[in-house]
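Page 42, continued from yesterday. The earlier attempt failed because a stray header line got pasted into the input along with the sequence. Redoing it now with the clean sequence only.
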Amino acid sequence: MTRIVLLADLHFGSVPPELAIKLTTGIAALAPDLIVVAGDLTMRSRRSEFSDAKLWLASVAAPLLMLPGNHDLPVWNIFERFANPFARYSRVTGQSLMPVFEDDHCFILGLNTTASWQPSLNWQEGTARRRDVEAARKLLAEAPPGKARIVATHHPLVAVEGFPRARPVRRAAGALAMLGAERVEMLLSGHIHQTYAVPLAEPAPPMIAVGAPTALSTRMRGEPNGFWLIEVGPERFSLCLHSFDGKGFAPTGPARTFARAVKA
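This time it went through. C-alpha cells are written below.
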C-alpha cells in the first residue's frame, strides 16, 4: 500500500504561522510515502513568500511531488513572467515541471497546466499544452503494468457537478483522451479551494477525480483548511479528508473507497 497526502493552494503570504506548524504535525502523524503539492505555493510569487514556502517544505519528512500554480508566476515583473515564468518556482523546489514518483504500487506524474498567459482575459485558468501531453504520454506508456497510474495537475481537467469553479483547462479533451488510453486511474488537482472525490464515467477505464481544499490559506471557499489522505491498495483506493478543527488536522469522517479500474 502507498499512502499519499494531497495538498494544494498553500498560498504562503496569506498563511497564519501557527497553522503551518500544525499542518506539519498533522502530516507527520500519518507517515505518508509521498506528499503531492498541487500548485500555488505562494500568494503573489514574491521572493519572501517562496522563502517561507521553502522553509515549510523542508519541515516535512516525506518525498515531495510538486507543481506550480498560477499564483506562482511573477505578477509585477512582466518581463520575467514571459521570459522565464517558472524561474522562481524552480529555484525553490528544484523539481522538474513534469515530476514523477514511482514505488512498488504507484506511478504518479505531475502535468503542468499553468501558463504565463491565455488567449482570453482570464489568465488564471489553465491549459494542457500539446507538447506536455505528448511527453506525459511517453512516460505513462513506459510505466510498469499493474501499478496505479495517477496524474496530478494544478487546475482541474474535468467539470464537476456542483462545483462551477471546476472548469476544465484548455485542450482538456485531448489530455483526457490520452490519459484514458494510458489507463490512468486517478486525477488530483487543486486551484478551486474546494473538496470533491467523484468517479468519472468517461473516458474508459473510469477515473476518479479528486480536488483538494486550500491547505493553509485564509482564502477559503466555504470549507476549512484541509488535505486528502489517499491510500492505494491492489484492489481499491481509500480517501479520507482531514480538516482543521481549530486545534489540529483530523479526519472529517470515514474514508471513502473506490474500486480500482485496473487491478494490480
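Notes: The domain at 2-259 is CATH 3.60.21.10 (Purple Acid Phosphatase; chain A, domain 2).
Reminder to self: strip header lines before submitting.
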